[in-house]
Amino acid sequence: MNESRAPAREGAERLLAGFEDHTDAFTRITRRAPERFSARDWHGTRADALERLALYRLMLEPAVADVASLLGPRVSETGVWNSMKTAFAGLAAGRPDVELAETFFNSASRLIFHRVGVDPRAEFVSAAPPALPLGAASPLLVTFDGGAGTPATLWDALRAFRFSADWEDLARDVALAASRLDAMLAQAWGTPTFDALDLLRPVFFRSKGAYLVGRVRRGESARPVVLALLNPNGRIAVDAVLSDEDEASIVFSFTRSYFHVESFHPAALVAFLKELMPKKPVAELYTALGFNKHGKTELYRDLLRHLAASEDRFVRAPGATGMVMLVFTLPSYDVVFKVIRDSFAPPKTTGRTDVLDKYRLVFHHTRAGRLADVQEFEHLSFPVARFDPALLDQLLAGAAETIEVRGDEVVLHHLFTERRLTPLDLFLREASPGAARAAILDFGEAIRDLAKSNIFPGDLLTKNFGLTRHGRVVFYDYDEICFLTDVNFRELPPAQEEVSWIGEQPPYWVGPADVFPEEFLTFMGLRGEAHTAFLERHSDLLGVGFWLEMQRRERAGEIFDVFPYPRERRLRSTD
Ligand SMILES: Nc1ncnc2c1ncn2[C@@H]1O[C@H](COP(=O)(O)OP(=O)(O)OP(=O)(O)O)[C@@H](O)[C@H]1O
Ligand SMILES: [Mg+2]
User: Which member of 28, 117, 302, 460 has the greatest number of CB atoms within 10 A?
Assistant: First the structure.
């Protein structure tokens, strides 16, 4: 072992240097956000998001290559990695982002070993990041005394955040925001008075929005506060005030792209956000800050802890059987596991690579609150005893190339995880007319929001959409997803008398990208109140005009507004 110590230390230093290069590049991109926002450079914002999503692999691979060239053939010895791990732990200890550094180390180790499960000799299995005090003295927060009344407090708070663009009309926004906040607090607490407003110093940027995030405190109670800012015409305006756990949670949803926010101490930021939104998993909070690799680590660790503390079995996920995916879940855990089938039944014409590409497209694309985030795992292993036997039979029959049983373990060589939603088809079956109506109205909004982000779902059947716990409709089946601008939206040819067709092909030419909006309603298979509601509010989606117009605007380079809050939350109605 002794002779491996020196190169192991050198290897650990190089990996840490690789991590630091990654962090520097990540921070450099993140720091562009305020200027992009002030300059309304939305295309730049998009480019930054893409650049940052590609960064992890881009920085990991050379770091691993560097270590491999240092260690030579010994790079595949577990003993060397064990020494490197010890050295790395020593070097990274005390860093404010130590847990992210450890995840980077693990990624490097897994790139070399492609191992099944986790090897604690060569990977960090649990993280204990240093805690930072989160009282009012925390350097993360800036506190404003509430004693002078809401308008004065908000005035001070907003003026404390400097952008290079000016406020459009701060007095107007303060008055509107204060009366809105007063009303919300009066409803929640019986009085609008509060002791203090704490805001996180880092501003959260995403797409065309910027968000000030914090809480109001009154005695022992606290409520989240989110001030949503826009830059509609070169000057900044407060667009909405949210002060409710659910509403804050929707802003931080797993269905949205990641924030660009400076997080010098990610664990402290996550801890603070978790206090505001206790129901949101820590994994999703890390991911929302752009640390999706560490989010994945947290999800995996949480799943292992959950498995150790529960006894239920993996079962088939409720709902329609997928033609492309085998989907299962653990009833006591809010996640579905999706394994690609070995082969797809007709009419599916895609292959495994296409499916992988589509799911990865969603990772890189703006998710606009309507696409569920996906995590990709390789070589997971769970005890056979935790699988419902009927499910295991189906998995082995349908995905033998991906799943095998090794002794007492089921090894899954590839899968995606997504948050578990309530499939819309199941929901509609049981829902009251009122609930069905609300869900279908939001279903239409989901299709519109997707169109605004240049996405056409491909398959509009309700079984491919699900409801979040906030009742928002989200799309989750990506194998037929495509860019709106790649679709050929067509009108149905006029019905020809005496011509009826039975079988595969209609009597007019249909290209692979041809889509007929007039047929959507038939495909959706809506009934009763759901059918009525869709026709009432969304009948324009059933004509070609809407789609051609959206394509025209996309092609002209328009970047649409998609707000993570309902219209009625906006302080000034602009449409
Ligand atoms: N995130 C999710 N939450 C809850 N259920 C889900 C989720 N993803 C998938 N399901 C369930 O699994 C089924 C199959 O999943 P999915 O639609 O992704 O697979 P598919 O094989 O691509 O389907 P299709 O045959 O429609 O192409 C869904 O209809 C739904 O019932
Ligand atoms: Mg489906």
Answer: 460
